[in-house]
Specification:
Rossmann fold; 376 residues; 2 domains; globular; alpha/beta; 43% helix; 16 strands; 15 helices; six-stranded parallel beta sheet
């Protein structure tokens, strides 16, 4: 069974949550007889085609951008060529150019879309884009939400709910490198074992400014690992009085990320907007047996982290409640141990890459079989 993933970004150029998901799924579905190709755009493609961990990544140069959306005639033509050789196309939403590509070249192909996020930040653009969006979502065979929370609270998914099903994102612990003991010891000397860890891209919806306000003039240690468009302004905020307990590490290696996840007291994700549709970094924390702190924004973050069971859930954009939750985690060893153990158990029960791959492989087959049984 041959599957083509189509999204605006991919590894090895970009390491965001959707790119991580596509990579994990492409690797994990190999055990279920799926051969994956990934087609994405890049400002400066490393290579038109390259093999990565058993699947093939194709890159097309970005032609131009409108309102931050990548357009690429090369990607569309490459899609047309590759789609003729696969059994199913797997789109990843949102990317309006993929909608256009599907309507131009993909309508006769079996197809699904993983709906990663509502469009939150650009309401004006959404008014113009909405007819195309609903036309596209109405033409694909199935829509996958990454959590029941998001399927229930997204007005877009509710409009198409008859064709929506839920498959949570999963991770393979074996794909994460074990940190070298010497490096682990070095990072422990630098940061200790009582710090709160944020890992991720520094984007507008991540709520890092709220995290900084929460720990200002406290002794709560915070380590922020990641880069992104808000890094400069957030570093400047951290230079203001009362934030000497916050350390920015910038982008870190996978090995250092695993070392920090091993050492940290808890994982904190203060995302305050629905653009944070799932929360891969929370899932990584659960995989490492760490308690979690996140906000209730009606998305997958509180499907991963169950308040009072695997960690704490607080109101979004509320520094005081976030500070209180972090203080509780810092002072209560029993709470940390109990929530960490439950987080690891919940990860094993719901969020493994094998479980995700089995569900997607079964969905692929159902969609392909239904298409084969439908008269032309």
């Amino acid at each position: 069974m041959r599957v083509l993933h189509y999204f605006r970004l991919s590894r090895p150029d970009s390491f965001g949550g959707v790119e991580q998901f596509i990579h994990q799924l492409s690797v994990a579905t190999r055990e279920f007889g799926v051969s994956s190709h990934v087609l994405a755009t890049a400002d400066v493609p490393q290579a038109p085609t390259q093999r990565l961990d058993g699947h093939v990544v194709h890159q097309a140069p970005v032609g131009f951008r409108i309102a931050g959306v990548e357009f690429s005639a090369t990607a569309a033509m490459r899609f047309r060529e590759l789609a003729a050789k696969v059994d199913l196309v797997h789109y990843h939403f949102p990317w309006p150019f993929a909608d256009l590509t599907h309507l131009a070249f993909g309508r006769k192909l079996p197809s699904i879309v993983t709906y990663h996020s509502d469009i939150v930040r650009q309401p004006t653009m959404l008014k113009f884009y909405s007819p195309l969006m609903h036309l596209f979502l109405g033409r694909v065979d199935r829509i996958v939400a990454t959590s029941p929370n998001y399927a229930r609270t997204s007005p877009v998914l509710q409009r198409h709910r008859e064709r929506v099903e839920v498959i949570p994102i999963g991770l393979d612990p074996a794909s994460y490198p074990a940190p070298e003991p010497a490096r682990l010891a070095e990072l422990e000397r630098e940061h200790g074992r009582r710090f709160f860890l944020f890992v991720g891209m520094l984007r507008y919806y991540k709520g890092i400014h709220v995290l900084l306000d929460a720990v200002r003039h406290t002794d709560i240690p915070v380590v922020i690992a990641g880069a992104g468009p808000l890094e400069e302004s957030l570093r400047a905020q951290a230079q203001t009085p009362g934030l000497s307990n916050v350390r920015f590490l910038g982008e870190v290696t996978e090995e250092d990320k695993c070392a920090l996840l091993t050492l940290c007291r808890a994982v904190v994700q203060p995302s305050h907007l629905r653009s944070e549709a799932f929360g891969i970094s929370l899932l990584e924390g659960a995989m490492f047996g760490k308690p979690m702190i996140c906000c209730e924004i009606g998305t997958g973050t509180t499907f991963i982290n169950i308040g009072g069971e695997t960690g704490c859930v607080v109101e979004p954009a509320d520094p005081l409640s976030l500070r209180e939750a972090m203080r509780r985690m810092l002072e209560d060893d029993d709470l940390v141990e109990r929530c960490g153990a439950r987080a690891a158990a919940r990860f094993g029960a719901h969020f493994t890459a094998e479980r995700m791959a089995a569900s997607y492989s079964a969905l692929y087959r159902r969609v392909i079989e239904r298409a084969d049984a439908t008269p032309a």
